[in-house]
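Run log // design_07
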């Protein structure tokens, strides 16, 4: 199913986060000497976009989804994943990630995004009337307003390299 225009801003942010996950995966094994660069990029992504993204989902999207009883368990699961991801972003901010933690972070973030896209967004588009999706979209745009619209540029260590 095509993504509803009102959910596209979240999907665009998801794409940028997934790109980071792909780069982390392809960089394996990540040498300990490179961990600082990866964690710096992760911490910056949280500050510029992810914290606002999570808040928009928790304050706007998830309450709308909870109106549908069948989505409540999924929303609860996604909320718990936000908490786990916040902890991992915090570890990056204080430079406490190991190579294994970095890979686990990328795997959790990627799985989380795919769950939102493939399960939550798809079900919402099916269940929610278009007028309600339009209202939701307006609220999401407002909530996402202060998020950076700039694409973060990987540094020399974190850029994608050909295999």
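design_07 sequence
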């Amino acid at each position: 199913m095509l993504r509803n225009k009102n959910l596209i801003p979240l999907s665009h942010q998801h794409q940028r986060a997934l790109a980071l996950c792909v780069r982390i995966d392809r960089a394996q094994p990540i040498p300990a000497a490179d961990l600082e660069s990866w964690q710096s990029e992760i911490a910056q992504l949280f500050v510029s976009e992810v914290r606002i993204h999570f808040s928009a989902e928790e304050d706007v999207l998830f309450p709308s989804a909870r109106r549908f009883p069948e989505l409540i368990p999924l929303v609860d699961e996604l909320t718990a994943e936000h908490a786990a991801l916040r902890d991992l972003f915090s570890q990056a901010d204080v430079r406490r990630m190991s190579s294994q933690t970095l890979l686990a972070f990328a795997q959790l973030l990627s799985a989380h995004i795919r769950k939102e896209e493939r399960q939550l967004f798809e079900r919402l588009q099916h269940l929610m009337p278009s007028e309600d999706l339009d209202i939701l979209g307006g609220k999401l745009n407002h909530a996402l307003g202060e998020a950076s619209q700039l694409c973060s540029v990987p540094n020399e260590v974190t850029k994608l390299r050909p295999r």
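The CA atoms of residues 21 and 106 lie 5 Å apart.
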